[in-house]
Amino acid sequence: MTERTAPAARAGQTPTPAPHHPDQAPASPRPVQAPAPHQPAQAPASPRPGQAPAPAPHHPGQAPAPAPHQPGQAPASPRPGQAPAPAPHQPGQVAPLAPAPVLQPVGRLRHDWPRTFADRLTAPLPGVRALARLAREGAVRPSPEGLRDIPLLPFEPGPLPPAGPDTLAVTWAGHASWILRVGGLTVLTDPVWSRRIFGTPARLTPVGVRWEDLPRVDAVVISHNHFDHLDGPTLKRLPRHTPLFVPAGLGRWFTRRRFSRVTELDWWEAAELDGVRFDFVPAHHWSKRTLLDTCRSLWGGWVLTDRAGHRIHFAGDTGYGHWFAEIGRRHPGIDLALLPIGAYDPRWWLSDVHTDPEEAVRAHQDLGARRMAPMHWATFVLSSEPVLEPLTRVRAAWEKAGLPREDLWDLPVGGSRVLVP
User: Does 335 score more than 90 pLDDT?
Assistant: First the structure.
């Protein structure tokens, strides 16, 4: 299909985003400060002495709060009947611990989501100049030398560990697809069992667990709608009554495919299934699946908590930024963080939306997590770094940070680890 170059934006106007390619993500010439997150309907936490009050919580059906005031810029006037925007958080100030979100019912769908979630972007989407530079440099695939190590990519499929009602175990199927055994449930994250996804070469490594070898899938979490995270052919294999937890604005995609237990959540909202809590948390990313749906649905990660309080954070797809520390504040005691380490080069193009290995280690530390398991590498060719480089760099960054080697779970595709018991 022939692509057309978007026209140049007028002065002072945000450039029109280009169509999404699953093997690429946008970069930004200038980062901007993130807007305040939506909050569920509840009373805010009382501020600590000498500290500014926390922002007013978001109520369903209410427009999101305006972006924080930028230095040198006149503050936006509040809408009629709306309270003025809170002052932005100051560097070095301890943010108040937010109250726990009100649980939403499983199967909750909404039809009053905002038309766009572009106000949640933590960096603007690329404009014509960035696209022209990418086309000029052509750095979207590894060099032949960078592909030489494909046979060395770790692939060691094994049987799934036995799992009882108190088990907490993870198995990496490849890319961002995990089989989580938590609280007696089997949960899939961003399941992609297809050999090929739209716009990319075939998988570098096979899926780590055959679909036929999976136990009954009790739930699925989706981080966003990019093709390497939301795979239609894989989801067609699921029974239509499988509980699905998805970002705000994405529910209709599933209901059109006759899934009957779809739960849409905003950032900082949660739902509970059979004693396991599913919290949807922010990420530094974006969404797009067609030419006309840029940022029409939300993106994010998930924190899963069992009855005993054990927690796994699945980051989905994300760049590095302030959200990790905030997630750690709101969800202390994360036992394992599943963090992306690949698809990061060229850096000028991908830094806003994909962490590199060193940033992934920093994100792990910001979260306050005990262990980290790398993902989002060794599966699809999405960028130009050598295929084995993410692993060597994350190991070096982990050692440089002085973290215990046993807490870096650098699993092979198909590998498993058990946290509990």
Answer: yes
